[in-house]
Amino acid sequence: MKIGITYDLMQDYLDMGFSREEAAEFDKPETIQAIHGGLLALGHEVVQIGNITKLTERLVAGDRWHIVFNICEGVYGIGREAQVPAILDAYRIPYVFSDPLVLALTLHKGMTKRVIRDLGIPTPDFDLVECADEIADVHLSYPVFVKPACEGSGKGIDASSKVVDAEGLHKTCTQLLKKFGGPLLVEEFLPGREFTIAIIGTGEDAKCLGIMECIFRKNAPTDSYSYENKNNYEEFMDYDFPEGPVADRCMAVALEAWRGLGCRDAGRIDIRMDKHGTPNFIEVNPLAGLHPIDSDLPIIGRHRGIDFNTVIKMIMESALKRNP
């Protein structure tokens, strides 16, 4: 089978003048090579396509693939993660991972939480702030947590994200609006344990690959999964892999959210507990990082004795079951 890989290479955007934080969601060469190797090990012919511009050039030139392994995060616009799948849909080329609807929805954390809330899944109360005039309209119980609503990789999250009063809310929102623009997600802070759950599969076939607890060391800049904590996890983070009732409850919430949102093939759900120990949905990553060493999903797989190539095999089995 001829499989193409679409991706945004981090170095390309650093060369264009993007900062490390701005390019945080894009992939390193070792990620692409690891995916390439995993697909080769399955006996496929593999073509590295590149980003959306290179994809469109090749499509116009007449190139086609049986299926595309798409990990493009996109660069511009609220629908940036959905752009490559939408183009592939137009050309009737199957692809791995979620469709344009899911990827456009889940990039916006506030819109995602509205769907989650409608599904009856626990998630902290929240407001959205589009501009400075709306900061005063936030009426939530303090402390609250503030972050950009349409960014990933912990962007915009630091020690100032946890806010204890109206003055702090105005200051943090003003800073984030200046740096990222709106919307901002403001949600009631959950003081409990934090977990990330790796999921493989689609719909009723979806299952939890495993659960990892994120434990913040005393020297961590903040007690949340921020950009700095994620990128320096060996210095600031400890990871545990719980079992038993707590893990089961968290994984049940994660699976319900995954299926309710319509996510496909593989990804991650982040869960945090409230003061009563109830697992709450925080956010979903339907295009989870696949760096073979540093990304959470492969780390969870490794702990369960599942090597990277087997993770790729499981993802492809899910995608090919949808596209016989």
Descriptive notes:
There is one protein chain. The chain is 36% helix and 21% strand. Helix 2 crosses helix 12. It contains 12 helices and 13 strands. The protein is globular, with a radius of gyration of 19 Å.
Keywords:
36% helix; 4-stranded parallel β-sheet; alpha+beta; 5-stranded antiparallel β-sheet; 324 residues; 12 helices
Model regions low in confidence, pLDDT < 50 over at least 5 residues = none
Helix proportion range: 25-40%
How many helices does DSSP assign? 12
Average pLDDT: 95
Distance between the termini: 12 Å
Q: How many strand units? A: 13
Strand line-up in the sheet with most strands? 11-10-9-12-13
Structural class: alpha+beta
Principal-axis shape equals globular
Describe the biggest sheet? 5 strands, antiparallel
Beta-strand percentage?
A: 15-25%
Following the backbone from N to C, one meets helices and strands in this order, namely EHHEHEHEHHEEEHEEEHHEHEEHH
Gyration radius from CA atoms, angstroms: 19 Å
